[in-house]
Amino acid sequence: WVFHFSRAGRPMRIEGVSRLAWAQQADGGWRIAAHRDDWDAADQVYAHVPVLGAVLRALKRRLATPQAPQA
């Protein structure tokens, strides 16, 4: 799913995914037993906050796994 909103007049979007766990009822019907929405808050929200965004980008660069050179 994609959540569209605006912050200070600037359009923004957050991409995520929903996970559902289903359970069968005694009458044979189904219901949602658990629901969870997952999205990357650090990359999609906090990265746009002044100062905090710069800190997160620096941490991301520092923690990145070095890529092997391609032949």
Any key phrases for this structure?
71 residues; alpha+beta; 3 strands; 44% strand
Question: What would you note in describing this structure?
Answer:
By secondary structure, this protein is α+β, with helices and mostly antiparallel strands. 23% of the residues lie in helices and 44% in strands. The protein contains 2 helices and 3 strands; from the N terminus they run E-E-E-H-H. It has helices at 41-44, 52-63; strands at 2-7, 10-24, 30-39. The chain has a 3-stranded antiparallel β-sheet with strand order 1-2-3, with no helix packed on it. A hairpin with a 2-residue loop joins strand 1 (2-7) and strand 2. The protein is flat, with a radius of gyration of 19 Å. The model has no long low-confidence stretch (mean pLDDT 87).
Largest sheet: 3 strands, antiparallel
Count the E strands: 3
Kindly, what is the distance between the CA atoms of the first and last residues, rounded to a whole number of angstroms?
37 Å
What percent strand?
Answer: 35-45%
**pLDDT below 50 for ≥5 consecutive residues: which ranges?**
none
Mean pLDDT level: 87
Shape: flat
Residues in helices, as a percent range: 10-25%
The number of helical runs is 2
Give the helices and strands as they follow along the chain. EEEHH
Rg on CA atoms, Å:
19 Å
Task: Give a short synopsis of this structure.
23% of the residues lie in helices and 44% in strands.
What's the layout of helices and strands?
Layout: E1 2-7, E2 10-24, E3 30-39, H1 41-44, H2 52-63
Antiparallel strand pairs: 1-2, 2-3
